[in-house]
Task: inverse folding
C-alpha cells in the first residue's frame, strides 16, 4: 500500500499522444537506454539523427536530448541544449569531436512546450555536418571527424548525458519533457527529405 502523503515522483509517463514523458513530475533521474546501440550506430561513417520532443524546461540547466557513449574519454554523439549562463544554445558532439554551441541561435524557443524536431547529419568523407530545427537547416560545417567512424560497443541514452558508458549521470543535465520520435538513419538525409518528413512518419 502506497503512502499517499509521501509519494515519490513516477518520472516516466506514457503520453496520450503516444509519446513518453520523462521527469515532468518533479523527478530528475529517469532516462531511456538502448544497450545494443553499438549494433545501431557502431561503425557508421554517415548518420542522420532526428529527435522530436516537447519540453517546458525552465530551470537554467543543461538538457540532453541524445547521448551515445562507447566507453572512451567523451561522448561519441551528443545533442543537447546547453545553458552557458547567458542563455540556451544547441550543443553538438559527433564521433568524439566537439562541434560545441551553435552561436546566434536562442534554443529557449525549443522549450516553449510545443513539439519540435532537432536533426543532426554527419558524413566522414569531408566531415560535413548539418543541424536542423523543425526541418529547416540552422547551421552546417565541415572538417569534423574526417575519416572516422562511430565507435562500436556503446549505449544510447535519451534523457541524460553519459560521462561514462551507461552512467556518470548528472541530475542537472536531465531531460524533462516528452519524446515523440527518435529516428536514426545510416546515411545523410537531404535537406529536402528532412523538411518533408519533419513531424511525420517515414
Result:
Amino acid at each position: 500500500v502506497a503512502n499517499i502523503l509521501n509519494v515519490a515522483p513516477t518520472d516516466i509517463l506514457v503520453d496520450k499522444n503516444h509519446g513518453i514523458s520523462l521527469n515532468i513530475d518533479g523527478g530528475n533521474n529517469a532516462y531511456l537506454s538502448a544497450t545494443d546501440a553499438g549494433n545501431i550506430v557502431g561503425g557508421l561513417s554517415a548518420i542522420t539523427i532526428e529527435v522530436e520532443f516537447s519540453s517546458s524546461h525552465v530551470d537554467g540547466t543543461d538538457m540532453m536530448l541524445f547521448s551515445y557513449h562507447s566507453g572512451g574519454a567523451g561522448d561519441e554523439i551528443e545533442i543537447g541544449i546547453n545553458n552557458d549562463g547567458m542563455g540556451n544554445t544547441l550543443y553538438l558532439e559527433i564521433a568524439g569531436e566537439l562541434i560545441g554551441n551553435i552561436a546566434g541561435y536562442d534554443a529557449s524557443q525549443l522549450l516553449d512546450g510545443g513539439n519540435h524536431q532537432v536533426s543532426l547529419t554527419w558524413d566522414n568523407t569531408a566531415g560535413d555536418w548539418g543541424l536542423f530545427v523543425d526541418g529547416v537547416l540552422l547551421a552546417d560545417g565541415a572538417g569534423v571527424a574526417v575519416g572516422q567512424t562511430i565507435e562500436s560497443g556503446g549505449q544510447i541514452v535519451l534523457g541524460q548525458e553519459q560521462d561514462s558508458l551507461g552512467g556518470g549521470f548528472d541530475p542537472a543535465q536531465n531531460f524533462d519533457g516528452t519524446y515523440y520520435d527518435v529516428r536514426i538513419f545510416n546515411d545523410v538525409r537531404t535537406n529536402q527529405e528532412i523538411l518533408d518528413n519533419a513531424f511525420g512518419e517515414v
